[in-house]
Amino acid sequence: MADAALRLKGLVEQLLGAPLPVRIRAWDGSQAGPPDAPALVVRNRRALRRLLWKPGELGLARAWVAGDLDIEGDLYEGLDLMASLVWERGEDARTLLQALGDPEVRSAARGLVRMAGLPLPPAPPPEEVRRARTHLHTKRSDKRAISHHYDVGNDFYEIVLGPSMVYSCAYWEQDGTLEQAQRDKLELVCTKLGLTPGQRLLDVGCGWGSMAIHAAREHGVSVVGVTLSQEQAAYARKRVADEGLTDRVEIRVQDYRDVADGPYDAISSIGMAEHVGAERYLEYAQDLHGLLRPGGRLLNHQIARRPQKDESAYSVDEFIDAYVFPDGELAPIGTTVTQLERAGFEVRDVESIREHYALTLRRWVANLETEWARAKRLAGAGRARVWRLYMAACALSFERNRIGVNQVLAVKTPESGASGLPLRARTWGAPTA
Fold first, then answer.
1. Which of 73, 128, 139, 274 has the fewest CB atoms within 10 Å, i.e. the most exposed one?
2. Ranges for the Polyketide synthase-like methyltransferase domain (predicted)?
C-alpha cells in the first residue's frame, strides 16, 4: 500500500471528527501530518487491529506494549497531544458504536478495517494481567497483585530508582539530585512523626527498606517493615545487614492485616494505601489505629484522584489495571481523610506535594532511558515499555492536576484530648507532654 500514513491520517480524522495533532509514520515508511510534531509510529497493521477490536486506552496500551506503536520525538509532548485526542475524549467501544450511526464515521471505520487486514483480534501481550474483577483485595489477591508489580527484578528497579531505592514521590528543592530529594522526603516523614530514640515504628509497605533504614540510622528507633514482595524483603534485609542495623530493623513478608505485635509509637505508610482498595480502606485505617499507642502518629502518603460526578460508580484506569497496578484504586483526598477519621484518627495536617511527583517521575524515566538496553534485557522489552509509558503518562497527569499526592498526618488522640503536637502547625518535633 503506497503512502499508508496519509490514508491512515485521513481515516482517523474522519472517524474522530478532529485533526490529528501528531505526525504519523506508517509501516511503509510514509509520513503525514505536522512536520515539527512528534510522530506516532505505526509499525504494522496489527496496531490497527488492536485499536479496532479494543478502541480507546486499552487498545492503545496493548499496541504500545507489544511494540506495534511508538512515539518518535519528545515523549511527553507526544503523550500530551494524544491525551487531548483520545484519553480526554473518553472514547471507548460504546461511544464509538454510538457514533457509527453517522455515515461518515461508518465509512472511516470500514476504511480502517480494510487497512488493518484480516479482522482477527490479536492476543494481548503476555505482560497483561487477565482476571475477573471479583474477590478484590483478599490477602491472596493482594499478594498476587503486589508480586506482579514489585517482583519484576531488583536490578531493574535499581536502574529506575537509582541508589535511594525509594519508589514514591521525592521532596525537591529547586535544584538537587534524586537521591537528595528522596532523603529529604524520608526525613520529612520522620520529622512529622516526631521520631525519638527508643520508639517503635511500623513501616507498612516497606519496599526495599529505605524508610526503615533511614529512621533507624538517623533517629534511633526500632523498626518493623512489612511487605508482600519476597524480592523486596530479601533486598531490604541485605541492606539492613550491610548498614549494621539488624538489631533495630526487622523486615517481614507479611500482610498489614496480620501485624499483631503493637502498640507502636508511629506508623509510616508511604505509597502503599493505593493498593488497599475502597472496600477495604476503613478496615485498613482501623487496623493501623489499633496498632498505635494513645498519642501515636500515622503518616499516610498517598496518591489521590479528582472526585467524579458519580462517586458510586466504579472507576479504573484500564492500562494501569491491566499492566501496572492490578486492583489498584485511587480515592479523592476528602474520602481518605473521612475514612481515617471514621477509624478514630484525628487528622492534623494534609500537605499536597503534587508537583514533586512530576519531577520524581521525570527523573525515573530519564534513568530508564539512559540504560534502556539493559532494562530490556532484565525485564523484557514489553515490561520496560510498560514502565516507560506508565511513568511518563503519570508525570503529565501530576503536572496537569489530573491526580495529586498528599501526606496526611493523623494522631490516635487519647480521651484526654492531648494530641502531643506542638501548638504551631508544621513545627513538628517530638511529642509534647
1. 139
2. 156-410
Yes or no: say if 265 and 200 are a contact pair by the CB < 8 Å rule.
yes
Q: State the pLDDT at residue 326.
A: 76
Q: Strands 264-270 and 292-305, how do they pair?
A: parallel
**Between 154-161 and 381-399, two packed helices, what is the crossing angle to 10 degrees?**
40
Nearest-angstrom CA–CA distance, 295 and 108:
65
Say what the pTM is: 0.90
Report d(CA 406, CA 388) in Å as an integer.
24
Q: Quote the pLDDT of residue 316.
A: 64
The candidate with the shortest Cα–Cα distance to 65, out of 43, 97, 88, 33, is 43
List of residues 6+ apart from 347 with CB closer than 8 A:
337, 340, 341, 408, 409, 410
CA distance 402 to 128: 25
Instruction: Give me the count of residues in the chain.
Output: 433
* Preceding omega of 263 cis (within 30 degrees of 0): yes
Question: Helix, strand, or coil here: 5?
Answer: helix
Domains and CATH numbers, the chain: 4-116 (no CATH), 139-411 (3.40.50.150)
Separation of CA 166 from chain center: 13
In this prediction, what percent of the chain has a pLDDT beyond 70? 87
Mapping DSSP onto H, E and C, the string for 183-204 reads: HHHHHHHHHHHCCCCCCEEEEE
pLDDT over 80 at 257, yes or no: yes
Cα–Cα–Cα angle for 253, 258, 263, nearest 5°? 105
Q: What is the DSSP secondary-structure string of 214-228?
A: HHHHHH--EEEEEES
| Least reliable range by pLDDT among 27-41, 294-308, 413-427 | 413-427
Contacts of 59 (CB under 8 A, 6+ apart): 50, 51, 52, 53
